[in-house]
UniProtKB/TrEMBL annotation:
This is Signal transduction histidine-protein kinase ArlS. GO terms for cellular component: plasma membrane. Residues 176-230 form the HAMP domain. Residues 238-448 form the Histidine kinase domain. It comes from the Bacteria.
Length: 450
């Protein structure tokens, strides 16, 4: 069942039950009060009969009782012990069939005879003219009241219908009003999945309710998905472009080997070397691409001593390369929060670049302030032109492609370093002057000792 039908059904049913309950309660209350009034009135009349009988012993009882006979009713008197009917006064014979007997208590009852309106009967014991105790019973038909109640019933029925019709129409409008944004939402989502576009919902002139919030969040999600999708597309096309060059080199060397390699050992060696180095390059490229993808999700948080980690990483470098790296760190215990392997990767990338793109000593310095921990890597190499400074953090961007190929660069190092730094709540800054050298600075929020 559609949500719209459910809302309509629920509101209509709820209103119907409410109206029926209220009307029934008012109807029953009115009926009870009316009966009580009738009983009270008839009791008063009975007392009046008793008083008049006592005050006028000379008037024949039957004549006196006739004077008090209700328009639609009956007066009966029953003898004690035998319950014999002493007298009965009525204008309508139908009342005679109402069952009756002597009652020594003052009471009242409402009697229902089939096909006839209800009758209220008041019973009161009195002293009769011969000095015996008798039961005076005054009956009155509730026909007029029942007629009124019937009219009231029809009034309530018509009133209920008159109330319910606008309520049903209101329910239809309410459900439409509530569901319109949801319908647009579903329509937009279907459109997005079927046609693979990035459609958003128009939010102009909308009141800022929960549905508005839902649609706004949806639009933000679409924007986010679109950005990620486009980034991925660029990444895939960049990556395939980067892989194309080594693959075509490998292919052409393999063809050269097939044609002339068997007879010419020089060509054979050159081809094998080139294939080997291109394979290395592809391996590095793939590894780095995987690293880049992985770094976007991984964010395990250990406590890392940046001073210790930097010292350790640099000593590994110095063992592997025949280059001097000057290390300055006045303080120990520079704690930050993050993933040790990823942080080491950042240091590795920056120091590796400094060594690759300069010939002199490289200086690494680790410092701390109240808010942040800082690691700077300075080289006295060729420097980076101002116009290139923002671009070098983009994936696969290399200033001098040919030179970078010689140094084994993939153009992914700084992109990886930047993404890891940002994942750790830090930032990567560059100060460089062409011909003088470069300083890369990474800043991380410091972990307070307590
Ligand atoms: P690559 O693998 O090519 O080094 P990176 O992303 O690490 O990729 O660097 C991107 C480019 O930035 C490099 O190709 C290089 O041109 C330039 N670059 C990076 N570090 C330095 C540096 N210390 N000095 C001069 N140029 C640099």
């Amino acid at each position: 069942m559609k949500l719209q039908t459910k809302i309509q059904l629920f509101t209509s049913l709820f209103m119907l039950i409410l109206v029926v309950l209220i009307n029934t309660a008012v109807y029953s209350l009115f009926y009870k009060i009316s009966i009580d009034n009738e009983v009270g009135e008839l009791k008063g009349q009975t007392n009046q009969i008793v008083e008049t009988l006592a005050e006028n012993p000379d008037i024949p009882y039957d004549d006196l009782l006739r004077a008090f006979l209700p328009e639609e009713g009956m007066i009966r008197v029953y003898e004690a012990d035998t319950s014999k009917l002493i007298t009965i006064i009525t204008k309508d014979a139908k009342y005679r069939s109402i069952p009756g007997e002597f009652s020594d208590a003052e009471s009242h009852e409402v009697v229902k005879q089939s096909g006839e309106p209800r009758t209220v009967v008041i019973k009161k014991p009195i002293i009769w003219d011969d000095g015996t105790v008798v039961s005076l019973q005054l009956s009155k038909s509730l026909g007029a009241l029942e007629e009124t109640m019937r009219t009231l019933f029809y009034v309530f029925l018509v009133a209920s219908i008159v109330i319910i019709i606008p309520m049903i129409i209101g329910g239809i409008f309410l459900s439409r009003f509530l569901l319109q944004p949801i319908k647009t939402f579903i329509h937009t989502m279907k459109d997005n999945t079927q046609e693979a576009n990035w459609k958003k919902i128009h939010l102009q002139n909308r009141s800022k309710d929960e549905l508005y919030e839902m649609e706004k969040t949806f639009n933000e999600m679409i924007e986010h998905l679109k950005e990620n999708y486009e980034k991925q597309e660029v990444f895939v096309s960049d990556a395939s472009h980067e892989l194309k060059t080594p693959i075509s080199i490998v292919k052409s060397y393999a063809q050269l080997l097939a044609r002339r390699g068997k007879d010419n050992p020089e060509i054979f060696n050159e081809a094998v070397q080139a294939i080997d180095s291109e394979a290395d390059r592809m391996q590095k490229l793939v590894e780095q691409m995987l690293l880049l993808a992985k770094n976007q999700q991984d964010s395990s948080h250990e406590i890392v001593d940046l001073a210790h980690l930097s010292r350790h990483t640099i000593s590994t470098f110095q063992g592997a390369y025949d280059r001097n790296i000057v290390f300055h760190c006045k303080e120990e215990n520079i704690f930050i929060q993050g993933n040790e392997d990823q942080l080491q990767q950042v240091i590795y990338i920056l120091v590796d670049n400094a060594l690759k793109y300069s010939k002199q000593d490289v200086t690494v310095e680790v410092t701390k302030s109240a808010q942040k921990a800082q690691l700077s890597v300075t080289d006295l190499g060729q420097g980076i032109p101002k116009a290139e400074q923002a671009k070098i953090f983009e994936r696969f961007y290399r200033i001098d492609k040919a030179r970078s190929r010689d140094t084994g660069g993939t153009g992914l190092g700084l992109a990886i370093a930047k993404s890891i730094t940002e994942l750790h709540g830090g930032r990567l800054i560059l100060h460089s002057k062409e011909g003088e050298g470069s300083t890369f600075i990474v800043e991380f929020p410091i972990l307070k000792e307590d």
